[in-house]
Amino acid sequence: MARLAFLLLCHRNPEGVIAQARALTAAGDFVAIHLDARAPKTDAARLEAAFSGNPAVTLARRVRCGWGEWSLVRATLNAAEAALAAFPDATHLYLVSGDCRPITSALQAHSLLAARPLDRIETVDFFTSGWIRTGFVEERLVYRHWFNERSRKRLFYASLDVQQRLGLRREIPEGIEMRIGSQWWCLRRGTVEKVLAFCRARPDVVRFFRTTWIPDETFFQTLVAHLVPRGEIEPHPPTFLTFTDYGMPATFHDDHHDLLVAQPEFFARKIGPEARQLRARLDALWASDEIRTAEAGDGRRLHAFVAARGRRGRRFGRRIWEAGAEMGERRSLLVIVCRDRPLGRALARAVDAQATLPALGYLFHDEEVALPDLGGIESSLAKRSRHRRAVLRLIFDALATDRLAICAEPGDLGLLLDVRAGRAELRVLLVDRPPTEEDLRRKAIAEGLAGPDTPEAQLAALLPALADRAAEEVRRLSEADLPGLVRLREDAPEDAVIAALGQVLDCGAAVAAQVAREAGLTGR
User: Fold this and answer.
1) Runs of H (alpha helix) within 63-136
2) Which pLDDT tens digit goes with each residue over 12-23?
3) What is the rounded distance in angstroms from the CA atom of residue 206 to the CA atom of residue 189?
């Protein structure tokens, strides 16, 4: 059976650290604590007093830590050295912070670690993976960083500017392929021993990393990939975390319990300081004999879904970069709003064929849409969605038309408001079809909110929220004061269907009737 030695990096709150360490050792594991040397000496004294004589806890040599600095790696190495010396029975070393909590039981974690003796660490190619979304990429490595960007910003950028002006780029150490990934990992004892031995044998590599920027995302990730065969590495990090729209780690609260324990990882980060109930429940879970048998959908997508709705009410924000394009007052855009995409596509085809009105289907939803050459912007859904009004203006120009139809979903109020702001005439045909339970189940899986193995009870609890969202989308559309909005219920009588189509298409009853028949809205 595996036994864990946790490397606990903490900066403050000694009472919380004491409680966390006791919870982590409740199932027979160990903890090596590194307390930031910036913390008061009284905090260190409280930790020493709390764990004096406790063979399951040891304290590592302290260093002053700063975000993005080598000091965080040095603190981790100190904790690892202390753990290896104090806990000869530990089979794995697991790096955690004071904001981490278990989301599974120790029994299950131990069993999984023993069954698959791998190093669990995210390690992807530094240059080609796209792991870094914003900010410096190669600048992290090829220039030396002696100052902290957060605390000494002017010196940080002045130093970088001088090196760039003088061409003082440096080479990556020979034989090293740079990797990057999450800071949080769980490594086998032998792997950590190899890393420490490598540091002693290759001081040039250590010197290189000492002046890289944010080395806690590259040091262990690079060395483990260098020292361990690829088949012995599980590249999925063992700690669940996700990020907000602003690129900051999301904070979990008491009402996130069910989301967290449904994830496949062993721990989660960051648990909010006020989430006392959540911390207590997760600590109790670690000491229990509970074994999870099912997993929910993608936790990151599920968290994004919940965060976008908000705990109280819903949010909608217009994107500033979408505000520049105008389509023109003389142009008219018909948006067929239909949750049932096959029906929406059929209606678009019928409109295109019968009403002398080009109709393009779900332009901002479907990857494959028949479009004219727009200079490459039409080639992918991501490109089309980035500047929607500009794309529509180009389509009007390419097709040499002043009238156009596209399809959308009820949740696309942002698209409709965006189009309205583009100074074109907007007409909206809302095909009101309430979603069935099967529709909601497919939607949950398609959005990553659930998976094939999601327990029925958990899925049943999610469906009302999705149904509520669907109803809310229709309500918001109806109340948005959209010009030319015509609401058509799917079960409406034939004469009402023809009248609605005639109104939005500005055509006669014969053409509207033919469109309705070809779309399957009548004659069923």
Assistant:
1) 70-86, 106-115
2) 899 999 999 999
3) 20
